[in-house]
User: What shape does this take?
Amino acid sequence: MRICFVGDSFVNGAGDPECLGWTGRICVAAQKQGYDITYYNLGVRKETSTDIKARWLQEVSCRLSKEYDSRVVFSFGTNDTTIENNKTRVELAQSIENTYQILQTAQQMFPVLMVGAPPMLDAEQNSRTARLLEQFEKICLKINIPYLDIFTPLQKSDTLLQEVAEYDGAHPRAAGYQEIANLVQNWSEWQSWFT
Assistant: This one.
């Protein structure tokens, strides 16, 4: 199985001293269970849905093909809701349109999963991100792509939020990424890829 994880710094695992993030951890766990995975981390720091829309297909196409069991996991959104020059980096309507186009195109080619974004320390940004993620979940429901909300449970995670506070206000460290990994690993839709 070949899996591309496409997204931002949280997909990349920024801040993790072990350089695994949540994506590396769930693939290590699957390998230990005996599954043969080729794992591609296509997370890029600071990228918005607009950036991801512009690059994902070419990058995934270099790594996946019909002859292999090829799959894609998307996770992004936080950078869209970041304020720059007194406005969000990507307008809400544009984020929704970008995400719809990305997922609809990907779904025609590969099995696809979407994982939401985690919370940060900035309460105002969290509020904007939560609104955006609700729209992402609706898109996934509409076009029948499984969506995992990690934002809601992680808002109650002392481990993740403490690491975020002690690091850079946005990214966790190893234990926080393990908490994200646990949510994904225990998700029936992720598990269904390995049965």
In short: Strands lie at 2-7, 38-43, 70-75, 83-84, 87-88, 112-115, 147-148.
